[in-house]
Design goal:
4-stranded parallel beta sheet; about 180 residues; alpha/beta; Spore Coat Polysaccharide Biosynthesis Protein SpsA, Chain A; 9 helices
Length: about 180
């Protein structure tokens, strides 16, 4: 049995549709020696039901850390989630950010003692986000510029962020070379 060496904290609050997509994204990772710790800022029963359902479908262990809903307390639940991580290496993300298939692999490849890695996200219009299915995640469609454009994503001029979707090499280079830009 392989040993888990990475903990991924995902913050969430009453967003089961998005959390489900995110958890499927982690089930499609090339690097698999991780656990998911869900930092739940007081969600209702639907979130717990989803987690129980997903735990039966995915290869990785899920730890659910919850506290009562007392308004926006994200920092507090993140601190509680950190305490529940079983590894010293932690990646943090949000419950509406679907990871590309190599997201964890890239982080693990570039991790070094004393170094903080920072990534970016590609915000899609809500109508495009709503279209993303489990199959689109597993097939990588939602990270494909052609698929996004064919579904009405308004790119206009090709931007620097658009290129990140296309190039694993650029993404790796930026993470490993202290990129000064917000990507």
């Amino acid at each position: 049995m392989n040993r888990i060496d990475t903990s991924i904290i995902i913050s969430t609050y009453n967003s089961t549709e998005w959390l489900e997509k995110v958890l499927h994204g982690y089930n499609n990772q090339t690097y698999r020696l991780f656990e998911i710790v869900i930092a739940d800022d007081g969600s209702n029963q639907k979130t717990l039901d989803l987690i129980k359902k997903i735990q039966k479908e995915v290869f990785y262990p899920i730890v659910h850390v919850w506290h009562e809903d007392n308004g926006f307390q994200k920092s507090q639940i993140l601190n509680k989630a950190i305490e529940k991580c079983s590894t010293p290496y932690i990646i943090m993300s949000d419950g509406d950010c679907i990871p590309r298939f190599d997201f964890v692999e890239v982080h693990v490849k570039h991790r070094k003692q004393g170094l903080f890695l920072s990534g970016g996200y590609f915000m899609l219009p809500m109508n495009i986000s709503d279209l993303i299915s489990k199959e689109d995640i597993y097939e990588g469609n939602c990270f494909n510029l052609k698929w996004l454009k064919s579904n009405g994503c308004p790119f206009g001029k090709i931007r620097f962020k658009d290129q990140i979707l296309k190039s694993k090499i650029v993404y790796d280079w930026l993470l490993s070379n202290d990129c000064p830009w917000d990507i």
